Amino acid sequence: MLSSSFLLLPFGLQMFCMAFDELYFHRRRGLPRWERIGHPLDTLTVVICLLWLLSVPPGSGAVAIYAGLAIFSCLFVTKDEWVHLKHCPAAEQWVHALLFALHPLVLLSTGLLWPAAHGIGSAWPGWIRYTGEERSILTALCAVVFGFGIFQFIYWNLLWRAPEAAK
User: Fold this and answer.
1) Are 17 and 99 in contact (CB under 8 A)?
2) Residue 56 in contact with residue 62, Cβ under 8 Å?
3) Which of 2, 16, 26, 122 is deepest in the core (most CB within 10 A)?
4) In 3-state terms, what secondary structure has residue 52?
5) pTM of the predicted model, to two decimals?
6) Structure confidence by residue, pLDDT tens digits, 56-90
């Protein structure tokens, strides 16, 4: 039986890769305007998915909508690849590939927390042992992702200044 806490592993890996990308690669090269706008929007697509999970109990229609939101988010985050090709070294593109691989796993894992977050975890197959903290976990994840999106927007669009040579 898999503990629902194990479902946080993809999220933790994604946070590690995202922090490395943000703190090392992005700060090293700076971000062109398209990425300074696009990256917070990427984060917003995840926040919308998490808000859906917190707001709506799972049901056939709700699951279909979540699947659509998750697929949209997975496709949306790839929108910058034509920019990345021009601006990123190979090592950063590799980190992006890891992030693209982890993105649907994060959305699948958080989706598996969904029933228990609404008190209906026992309706799912017995291969997940829910802890009873799933709603708190999803709320915390949503707050962390939302906070990161706010940081991205403020830092890259209001605080960061391009070096004079790059202007």
Assistant:
1) yes
2) yes
3) 26
4) helix
5) 0.91
6) 999 999 999 999 999 999 999 999 888 888 889 99
pLDDT value for 167: 46
pLDDT tens digits, one per residue of 34-45 = 899 999 999 999
Rg of the chain on CA atoms, in Å: 17
Instruction: Judge contact between 88 and 96, C-beta under 8 A.
Output: yes
Range list of H helices, 1-120: 9-20, 27-29, 33-55, 60-76, 81-87, 90-117
Residue matched to tokens 């070096």? 163
Determine the residue type at 28: R
CB atoms within 10 A of CB 55: 9
Number of CB atoms found within 10 A of residue 161's CB: 8
Are the C-beta atoms of residues 25 and 90 closer than 8 Å to each other? Answer: no
The CB density around residue 93, as the number of other CB atoms within 10 Å, is 14
